[in-house]
Amino acid sequence: MLQAMPSTSLSGVDALSIHGFDEEAAFLDYLLDDVWDILAQGVRVRFAAAHTPTLATVRHGIPTVRTVVLRAVSRDSAMVFIHADRRSGKVQELNLQPACSLHIYDPGRRVQLRIEAQATVHLDDQIADGEWTRLRSQYRAQQWRAVAADVVHAAPEVAIDDVDGLAEAGRREDFAAIALHVSAIEWQHISSRGPRRARFEIGDNGRGYWLDA
Fold first, then answer.
1. According to the model, what pLDDT value does residue 150 have?
2. Cβ–Cβ under 8 Å, residues 26 and 56
């Protein structure tokens, strides 16, 4: 994979050209590097665009969407993690139909990502235990920061996330970790001069190629 150029921002992608690369495949590698950088930043940075992507599932044959919080990313295993209350609709929907997608729009880069995945819901196994431990640690760290700042009551880091209440109450029995196994990513740069789109098939025989706008 191409590592020579920094992948902190593609807001100037209009000015980028594959002429600066040895070949078109290297330019696509650069874009894929930036895709994973967007996802990793979404885990680390609370206000990053990818911190709260939109998850699309299927309910009774009808697409349904909601905002979730990106909790972990592994490029090596092509997985991203979100958390949920195991009683929630998205858990029931993903158990019935694991095919799902994530949507992210990064206004700084002017990049849209559409991520196709297969979901695995983890309830009472090592993966769920590990994610619960990490969630509780993050919540406790947040409380300590609030105390240090003389805040009487710390607001949840992301109030829209239904597991914040679980972390506060310590209700492990209601917690679910959802692993999204990424199979494809569509990258699109939004520009007044017309969009540029690429698709990346993820896996052992992964490849990237341009799409017609």
1. 56
2. no
- 84 occurs within a structural domain: yes
CATH of the domain at 93: 2.30.110.10
Of residues 157, 143, 201, the one with CA closest to residue 51 = 157
Q: For residue 186, how far is the Cα from the chain centroid?
A: 13
Q: Tell me, yes or no, whether 118 lies in a domain.
A: yes
Token duo for residue 209: 């190629």
- Tell me the sheet residues that pair with 48: none
Token pair, residue 133, equals 């431990």
> Quick check: 53 and 38 in contact, CB under 8 A?
no
Torsional class of 101: left (φ above 0), alpha (ψ -120 to 50), beta (otherwise) = beta
- pLDDT tens-digit readout, 91-133: 999 999 999 999 999 999 899 999 999 999 999 999 999 999 9
Query: Please, are residues 210 and 188 in contact by the beta-carbon 8 Å criterion?
Result: no
Mean pLDDT of 164-170: 89
Alpha helices in the chain (DSSP H): 24-44, 89-96, 126-148, 164-169
Q: How far apart are CA 135 and CA 148, in angstroms?
A: 20
**What pTM does this model have?**
0.82
- 134-163 per-position pLDDT tens digit: 999 988 877 666 556 554 444 444 444 678
Q: Are 53 and 70 in contact (CB under 8 A)?
A: yes
Residue position matching structure tokens 């009683």? 87
How many structural domains does the chain have?
1
